[in-house]
Amino acid sequence: xxxxxxxxxxxxxxxxxxxxxxxxxxxxxxxxxxxxxxxxxxxxxxxxxxxxxxxxxxxxxxxxxxxxxxxxxxxxxxxxxxxxxxxxxxxxxxxxxxxxxxxxxxxxxxxxxxxxxxxxxxxxxxxxxxxxxxxxxxxxxxxxxxxxxxxxxxxxxxxxxxxxxxxxxxxxxxxxxxxxxx
Length: 182
Known about the structure:
- The protein is mostly helical.
- It has ten helices and two strands.
- Helices cover 46% and strands 3% of the residues.
- Keywords: Oxidoreductase, Peroxidase.
């Protein structure tokens, strides 16, 4: 769901000679074929395995916030804002409603991520003001991102991912455990 990158917004590729060419996500978003043709899979995997990623958090790198289609100012698009709007357009229920549908307990502003709340109360106050204090209107994507605690996705996104993999497995008639599917 999220791209793990370094603070400077680059992703390094390690060549066998020992070089580290860095590619920015915003300059290569639509150029996946060019990257694969220019670099081998070994270089890409070695680069991903040898660089230290940022800790899991609710901060989105600049290349995804402002420069998805390139570094030029006229190409600005915020992927997070687009994801929130897509959720609204497609009728995704608010955060606590979605939690209820996965049999997870509902949350209030201080219990979404207690550690983050204690570290950054100002952010939660701004978020609460943005939603006029009504947590029942909090977007599922925003709440799910805020749950992230450094050990992978939070409860909601973990439940969503598990549900999707179970549906994928159970819907596959060739899955070896689906003996009644022919």
